[in-house]
Amino acid sequence: MASEYHYDLVVVGGGPAGSSAAFEASKNGIKVALIEKEEIIAQSVRTSGVTWIQNIKEFGIPDDCYNPIKNYSFCSPNNEVTISDTVSHAAVLDVRKTYRWLAEQAKNEGVDIFLKTSIKNAIKNKEGDIIGVSGTSKDGEIIFYAKIIIDATGFSSTISKDMGFVTQWERFGAGAEYEVSAENVDSETWWLMVGQKYSPSGYAWIFPVGRNIVRIGVGIGKPESSIDPTERLKELMDSKIGPIKKLGKITPIEFHYGLIPNDGLSRKTVYNNLILVGDSAGQANPLVLEGIRYAIKYGRVAGKVAATAIKSGITNESALYPYEETWKKEIQGKIKSAGKVQDRWIGLTDEEWDKELEIIKELRPEEFLDFIKAEFGLANMIKLATHHPKLAVRQLFNLVKSKNKGIT
Ligand SMILES: Cc1cc2nc3c(=O)[nH]c(=O)nc-3n(C[C@H](O)[C@H](O)[C@H](O)COP(=O)(O)OP(=O)(O)OC[C@H]3O[C@@H](n4cnc5c(N)ncnc54)[C@H](O)[C@@H]3O)c2cc1C
């Protein structure tokens, strides 16, 4: 006999999107369950954890959850550039600490967290709308009924797939990473490594986590390349090319692997009684494939919209639309533009990458950060596209400007 639970809102997936949605919904006065298939929150790490200090502060994430970065180094086969800032604007998160803090915040707001509970199916009413989910827990079959379900299952989009609303992402990034201790670590400097030998359709990275620990990883764009990121990472670490050599002796601590959608914001994200958020909604910046800040931000928006709808007694698609309207207004144009730059980058040869670094060299730290974050403000883009002293820089920003009529 299956155990049966009834909630106002059920959030499936205890990643940053799910915990943030559950937190905000419960804060707004409804009864919420957060369901996670792993034994503890963030048991497996599937991300490198780079994000931005401004967002960290905005979310209230504690200072001991991240390592600040202020030097941004790039290398291509025959070029190298470091953009140095006076203060840190980027950060590498302690992923477990941060994700557990987010879930703890939800719990403190009254959310019931179900761990080791894997959801397999959506339950529909006779109109075909979702009214619950079912799966297995450590005690056997389990069923949750709710007025709204949030699909925060990440890349797998389990609920939306079972509803028949989405299919597997066609374009995505596959990433493999080792967290290692190293002999020589500059904890304020990250490295992005581009060109065929690092990744034929992506990039490799060194992200310092603090003390003598760094994450060395490789991301490969699929279906553009068939290379296995784990194999390529092993090759890079064995041959110690480029900045990996500077790390000296390396001792692996832990291996991470994950997939991230790269199909742009192509999905509809609200249906009757259902919201998709975070990776299940494709909310990722394609330039560096980062999605944590969007997962937290739009997780909170989803939670708030869900609570308002539930309290009003109407939970259909139109009642949930304010969530989709918010993210569309804020990031749709920017992500479209970032996709154009990504398309340009994916096609570059090694020689072209060497030249692209010459353009990046020309950017001031704040220009570089806006660019890499896909924070393409129209005024700023026009300024760079028309007034920058270097023609190549003007050309790069013209690409962003001309392809992006929707930016604000
Ligand atoms: C290699 C790699 C590196 C990355 N690096 C960065 C980076 O540096 N910075 C950045 O911002 N972003 C990065 N990302 C992207 C980032 O990790 C995601 O955008 C972010 O994790 C999305 O959060 P989410 O909550 O939507 O999904 P997830 O973090 O994937 O969380 C989903 C949760 O749902 C649970 N779950 C899944 N299915 C079920 C089910 N059926 N039942 C119950 N629970 C379920 C999972 O166990 C998981 O805990 C990277 C991604 C990869 C793959």
TrEMBL record:
Judging by the UniProt lineage, the source's domain of life is: Archaea
Give the keywords, sorted: FAD, Flavoprotein, Lipid biosynthesis, Lipid metabolism, Oxidoreductase, Phospholipid biosynthesis, Phospholipid metabolism
**UniProt cross-references to Pfam families, sorted A to Z:** FAD_oxidored (PF12831), GGR_cat (PF22578)
Annotated GO biological processes are:
phospholipid biosynthetic process
Gene Ontology MF terms in the entry: oxidoreductase activity, acting on the CH-CH group of donors, NAD or NADP as acceptor
Q: Where is the Digeranylgeranylglycerophospholipid reductase catalytic domain?
A: 176-244
The protein depicted here goes by the name Geranylgeranyl reductase
Q: Which organism is it from?
A: Nitrosarchaeum koreense MY1
Query: What does the organism's lineage look like at the top?
Result: Archaea, Nitrososphaerota, Nitrososphaeria, Nitrosopumilales, Nitrosopumilaceae
